[in-house]
Design goal:
Alpha-Beta Plaits; two-stranded antiparallel sheet; alpha+beta; 7 helices; 2 domains; 37% strand
Length: 225
């Protein structure tokens, strides 16, 4: 699940920055044009106010600062183009077969989903919220190979400030939202078999009194229930 990938990436990134605080100073000086003195203050703040990472919005008695990872929405973007493993209905996932998870008679029904996830930065100070927001961007961009290796492709980031709203957390904290978008293949393994429901691309060739049909291409398939 993508939420787990984001949470793991953030937690790993935080641990890496704590182990190598010089990277924080370099990032803020070279990328965000802070002075040496300002960058060192960010390093000190990060060590003193290290954020935690959690799934979903803060609940009762949260400890700030923190990153909350929330699904904003997702949409199926390629249901027709990639249904039934790109149109090859007899194709199976060889890795799943080799692991003994499915039989070699399974059909893989495939789609692509585009998801938007919010990484929401909460803290008790506006400057700290800004710094942690920028570090979340730094971590997620640095971990793009990790996302690709786990099937999260075409990642993109955007962001915005959020005003006080009791629905999403205490009204006295400062909040900034980072949007993380990605696409991922979604497979459904089906062992029910298929039957042809319709065909297209028919050409008729006459051979004496008996016509023959060639060029038949399956147009759509459905389970043989």
């Amino acid at each position: 699940m993508i939420e787990r990938l984001i949470i793991r990436a953030l937690r790993k990134g935080i641990d890496d920055l704590l182990a190598e605080p010089g990277r924080i100073a370099t990032f803020f000086r070279c990328t965000l044009d802070l002075t040496e003195e300002e960058a060192e203050k960010v390093v000190e703040l990060f060590a003193a106010k290290t954020p935690t990472v959690q799934f979903q919005y803060p609940r009762k008695d949260p400890v700030f600062p923190l990153y909350a990872v929330v699904l904003a929405g997702e949409q199926e973007i390629a249901p027709r183009a990639l249904d039934d493993f790109g149109g090859f209905t007899d194709m199976v996932d060889p890795t799943a077969v080799s692991l003994g998870l499915i039989g070699d008679d399974y059909i893989v029904r495939t789609s692509i989903f585009r998801g938007t996830y919010h990484v929401i930065t909460y803290s008790e100070h506006p400057d700290l919220t800004l710094y942690l927001y920028e570090l979340a961007k730094h971590i997620l961009i640095r971990e793009r190979d990790y996302f690709k290796e786990n099937g999260a492709l075409d990642t993109a980031l955007s962001g915005r400030d959020m005003g006080p709203d009791a629905k999403y957390g205490p009204e006295w904290v400062f909040v900034r939202r980072l949007e993380f978008q990605m696409s991922r293949q979604f497979n459904v393994y089906d062992d029910r078999g298929v039957t042809i429901r319709d065909v297209r691309g028919i050409s008729v060739i006459t051979d004496g009194d008996q016509p023959s049909v060639t060029g038949v291409t399956p147009y759509n398939v459905e389970p043989d229930c």
